[in-house]
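Researcher: We're teaching a course module on how sequence relates to structure. For the next exercise, students receive a sequence and then see the predicted structure as C-alpha cells, so they can try to spot secondary structure elements on their own. Here is the exercise chain.
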Amino acid sequence: MSLPGVISALFPRLRVCLISLVGLGLVLVTGCAGGSVGRSLEKSLEADPQIQNQVPSSQSPSPQPEPTAPESGGQMGPMPPADWGQPAANRVSPTAPWLARVPEDLKPYLQDWLALGWDDFKNSAFQPNQRITRGQYAKWLFTANNRCYGDQPTKRLRSAGPDSKAAFQDVPANHPDYGAIQGLAEAGIIPSSLSGSSTALSFRPEAPLTRETLVLWKVPLDTRAPLPTATVEAVKTGWGFQDAGQIDPFALRAVLADRQSGEFANILRAFGYTTLFQPKKAVTQAEAAAALWRFGGQTEGISAQELLKR
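Model: And here is the predicted structure for the students to work with:
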C-alpha cells in the first residue's frame, strides 16, 4: 500500500498533500479542517516575516563569490606582466620609433633599457646611430651605475653639490650635467685636476666620445680596483689589436683590464669582434648604451636584463 493510502487508513479525517521537492525527496504536509494538528502544521510552515523582509519572494539571493587567497609565493596588488623576468629574446619589450634603426646585435641591450623605462631612451632625442658627446655619456654612466646598484649604496656614485670646487673649467655649477660630471671626477672615475692630472683641465662636454675614453671611464666601475700596468705588447697579445700603439697610454691600462672580463668585456659588447680597435673613433649612442648594459667583471656583475627580473 502507498504512503498516502496508509495515512488515509490511519487518519481518515486528515487531508493529505505531498509536495515533491527536486533532490530532497518527499515532504509530507498534513492539514485538517478545524483540526488542531493541521493548524499547528500550517502555522509552522508559514514564512518567517524577518526572512521575507530580507529576501524578496520573487527572487533568490545572488551567490557571492568567495574571496580567494593568493597562491603560495603570490602577491596582492598589481601583478607584473606575464613575461616579467623572461630572457630578452622571449620578453615583449616596449617599442620606440628609432628601434628599427638599431643594429641587430645591439638591439637587445636597447630593448632592456626601454623596458626599464629609462627616459633618455624613450624620447625622440635618442639617435642610436649618431655620435654621443662626452657630457652625455658621463650622465649616462652616472645614471646606469646607480640604477644597476640601486640596492647597494656602497657602490652608488654621489652627485656633486653646487658648493663643490669645479673639477673642470668648462663645467660650472650651472651646467645641466654638472652633478654627474663633477661627481665622477670627485670619485676619481674620470681624470681631472682633482686626481692630479695636469692635462685634464677642460672636460669638453660637447666633444664626441671616443672608444678609448668610453673604456677608460667605464672599466673602473667594473673592476672597482686600480687599473693594471699595461704595455702595447700586452694589449696586442690580449686583444690582437693591430693598432694598439695608437691607444693613449693612460687608456691602455683600461683596455687591458677590460680583456680580463672575458665575454663580458665592454669592447666586445659595444663593438663586436675586431682586430682594429680604432681608439680615436667616435662612439654612437647605441654602442654607449650597450657598454652600459652591464657592470662587473667576468665572475660577477649586474646587467639591465637582471634588473628586469627583480
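Model: If you want an answer key for the exercise: The beta strands are 15-21, 25-31, 294-296, 301-303. The chain has 13 helices and four strands.
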